[in-house]
Design brief:
It is built from four helices and 19 strands. The protein is mostly beta strands and about 300 residues long. The strands form two sheets. The chain has a 17-stranded mixed sheet that branches. The chain has a two-stranded antiparallel sheet with strand order 8-9. The longest helix has 13 residues, at about 75-90. It is globular. The protein starts with a strand and ends with a strand.
């Protein structure tokens, strides 16, 4: 099969996007893994197929596949790239300034700005309300806190690892996230850092501990894992994505981390989340939807035999 594609990224979180409005593209796990391989394929954190939506409200359906070939319900950076693909190729009416995308996690309303050439340069996504009840995240830990609205959630529950116990707040943004805020890096084991003399978020060896908690028994569908710290101008985080490993950015992860910061009284209403690939602006007033604003860029286009 000969497949035309575009390579897009949101803060370095990169995707292979293909027009599948005819529903002719069927990829096996092995084919997705090959496409996403950074040495033998195109290289990406995932594949997005643009398919028809099942209802009249949404412009198109975002069929998102992780780099390991597994389906994912939602991807925040991916949905901004999806919107850019639709806007830049004339699927969307630029004058309307917004569109609705269908995803496995439900519909997402996206407002956008364009540059002088009519190409999307920034998008604000209504990511929907965070899902907090443990069974729906899902996480097997019992709720140990409630929101002001009375919603039970898992707040900084201690989970074991070969490096000791870590406290995670659990949030779903259509996909599961486990967020750990570190307040004292010096107290963590030397084995977790590239340079034990300078312990920090940047020096954390995320691949090992991220993989351990991604498949921890507490997460029946596995989980995305975020380690974060509060900074003078926002929240800094790194993410180990379920089915991908560490990525430069994660939109749902940034939203989940900001929600967790609000739930643990580390942040409120709006703020900037700093990721390895750049910054996302997140807003959440404690009820209702989380709003995420950030860029999307196209790197190149091409054709490949699959």
């Amino acid at each position: 099969m000969r497949m035309e594609f575009a390579k897009l990224n949101g803060l370095g979180n990169d995707f292979i996007i293909a027009d599948d409005m005819s529903r002719d593209i069927e990829l096996t796990e092995a084919e997705v893994q090959h496409l996403c391989d950074r040495r033998f394929g195109i290289g990406a954190d995932g594949v997005i197929l643009v398919r028809p939506a099942d209802d009249g409200r949404a412009l198109a359906y975002m069929h998102y596949i992780n780099s390991d070939g597994t389906l994912a319900q939602m991807c925040g950076n991916g949905v901004r790239c999806f919107a850019k693909y639709l806007v830049d190729r004339g699927f969307a009416n630029v004058s309307e300034g917004s569109l609705i995308a269908s995803t496995m996690a439900g519909e997402r309303t996206i407002s956008f700005t364009v540059d002088a050439d009519g190409k999307l340069d920034s998008a604000t996504v209504d990511m929907g309300a965070p899902i907090l009840e443990p069974a729906q995240v899902p996480v097997t830990c019992e709720a140990n806190a409630t929101t002001p609205d009375g919603i039970p959630f898992v707040r900084e529950a201690k989970l074991s690892s070969p490096w000791g116990d870590f406290a995670f707040t659990c949030v779903s943004m259509g996909n599961p996230h486990a967020i750990c805020f570190i307040d004292a890096w010096d107290e963590l084991p030397d084995a977790l850092f590239r340079d034990p003399a300078h312990k920090s978020l940047d020096g954390l060896l995320l691949d090992g501990i991220g993989a351990a908690f991604e498949s921890h028994p507490a997460f029946p569908e596995k989980t995305n894992v975020e380690f974060a710290e509060i900074t003078p101008d926002g929240i800094a985080m790194r993410v180990y994505e379920r089915g991908c490993g560490e990525t430069l950015a994660c939109g749902t992860g940034a939203c989940a981390t900001f929600v967790a910061a609000c739930l643990t009284h580390r942040a409120q209403e709006r703020g900037t989340v700093h990721l390895l690939g750049g910054d996302l602006h997140i807003e959440w007033d404690g009820t209702g939807s989380v709003f995420m604003t950030g860029p999307a860029e196209e790197s190149f286009t091409g054709t490949i035999e699959v």
